[in-house]
Design brief:
globular, alpha+beta, 22 strands, binds zinc ion, Lipocalin, Metallo-beta-lactamase, Chain A, 7-stranded mixed sheet, 8-stranded antiparallel beta barrel, 30% strand, disordered N terminus, 3 domains, 13 helices
Length: 465
């Protein structure tokens, strides 16, 4: 259990999510090892198992009910869309925000306080609650209101005193008149477990197409939370475990939802080897489900069409063009990034890489650059705590060699003139709070003057907002 040593620096530094690795064995393991199995204890185990069977049965029933009644659409907020509007009252001004399929808002802003960022939620009854953060999170204000269709706001109050009311308008962007690309972060973490962040996965929505870049452990829950059940294609950047881990589960999900077409898979060399091996690992599962559900389980749902490329255009349907380009994540070779262009909008996703000139080239003038990032100071802090663990210390140092530091990412964004910078694959895997995020990006704004967003799972970024 030497690996558990990873958790010690994270625990003490306070910069990692609590409980990011199992620190203690569970109660049963403790009993199994530490106590003699008396009759009393054996009976307890049987009782436990009976309860567990009952509970499992209930969960299955609940799952079937949800499948039947909700058709698996867990997220369909009536308020979903992009909005712009005005407030009057003690707090006035122009505001804008995007409401996702779950009614969540991650980007509320108001021109009265341009540095303030708001996040919150509108429930199905129209109760709005937004927490605005000022001065990098040092100050917050909670705004609550009732909203009706098109975000007509009534009874607005803030916890710092004051009222507001106003009216919003659905942004033309959400009415399909202006094309946009939406980036949904489904996993912003790394291979080291962090309960607040799934492993690498980014969804790109362009028109009616959805491109899933990497399928790291934990992404699937975030994808379903975003109201998405299937994708047009999967694109791999490279074959480290934190980028491929949950691919098999995506295939099972396709089976459950009744996908009728084989899944398109695009990647650098290695895609055929990795994907075929994963399908092989799931072949018994597939056979059980086929035997159980018969022709309700479509064969195509667990089939793939794999295309391997070196670089260049990997997808082009006339409107959407995707280009693959080589990066440097050696010894993980080949490793690539992607540029997606759709009717004048563009997004670049870096994949894992150290700083390479082609990133600046490919990201030239793009609307959104989603780049991996390593904060050197925070990594050095964890190194200081690893003095007594030479193996882990050496491994941490090695990690720096094939990632891009936050300062280097800022240089790329500046040199490429990108409009918005979004950081993902955060090393170290910081907890989700604005204090840690501010520390993570410290110094970057001196180099890159545009907006910098520290990625969080579930975040939606639109080229038009
Ligand atoms: Zn990697
Ligand atoms: Zn990675």
């Amino acid at each position: 259990m030497v690996e558990m040593g990873f958790s010690r620096p994270s625990k003490h530094s306070g910069l990692f999510a609590p409980g990011s690795l199992p620190l203690a064995m569970n109660g049963r393991a403790f009993l199994d090892r530490g106590f003699k199995k008396t009759d009393y204890y054996k009976n307890q185990i049987k009782e436990d198992e009976r309860m567990r069977t009952k509970l499992f049965g209930l969960l299955v029933l609940l799952g079937i009910f949800l499948l039947g009644s909700a058709g698996f659409v867990m997220a369909d907020s009536p308020f979903q869309g992009s909005y712009k509007g005005t407030f009057k009252g003690n707090f006035g001004g122009n505001w804008k925000c995007t409401v996702d399929a779950n009614g969540r808002i991650s980007d509320f802003s108001i021109d009265l306080a341009p540095e303030a960022r708001g996040r919150g939620v509108i429930d199905r009854e129209g109760n709005l609650k937004v927490t605005l953060s000022f001065h990098g999170g040092a100050m917050t204000a909670v705004w609550t209101a009732n909203v009706t269709k098109d975000l007509i706001v009534k009874n607005g109050k803030t916890d710092r005193g004051g009222t507001f009311e106003g009216r919003g308008m659905r942004n033309p962007a959400s009415a399909k008149s202006e094309p946009s690309i939406k980036v949904i972060l489904l996993g912003t973490g790394t291979a080291i477990p962090n309960p607040q962040r799934a492993c690498a996965s980014t969804l790109i929505v362009a028109g009616d197409k959805r491109f899933l870049i990497d399928t790291g452990r934990g992404f699937l829950n975030n994808m379903v939370k975003a109201g998405i059940r299937d994708v047009s294609a999967v694109l791999f950047t490279h074959y480290h475990s934190d980028h491929i881990g949950e691919f098999g589960e995506l295939m099972v999900l396709r089976g459950l939802f009744g996908a009728k077409e084989p899944l398109k898979v695009i990647g650098p060399k290695g895609a055929k080897k990795v994907v075929s091996a994963m399908l092989e690992a799931y072949s018994l599962d597939n056979a059980y489900r086929k035997a159980h559900h018969k022709d309700k389980w479509y064969d195509a749902s667990e089939q793939v069409r794999i295309q391997e490329f070196q670089s260049g255009v990997v997808y082009d349907d006339g409107d959407i063009k995707i280009r693959m380009f080589e990066v440097d994540h050696s010894p993980a070779k080949p490793a690539v990034g992607y540029r997606i262009d759709y009717l004048g909008k563009s997004v670049v996703v870096s994949g894992d890489t150290k700083k390479v000139p082609q990133m600046t080239e490919m990201a030239k003038g793009c609307d959104i650059l989603v780049h991996e990032a390593l904060n050197l100071q925070l990594v050095n802090m964890s190194e200081a705590r690893l003095r007594d663990h030479p193996r882990l210390l050496a491994m941490t140092k090695e990690m720096v060699e094939y990632h891009t530091t936050t300062m280097e990412v800022a240089e790329i964004a500046r040199d490429a003139g990108v409009r918005n910078l979004v950081l993902t694959h955060l090393v170290p895997s910081i907890p989700v709070n604005s204090k840690a995020e501010q520390m993570f990006i410290r110094g970057m704004s001196d180099i890159y003057k545009g907006p910098i967003l520290v990625g969080r799972d579930g975040m939606v970024i639109d080229t038009n907002s």
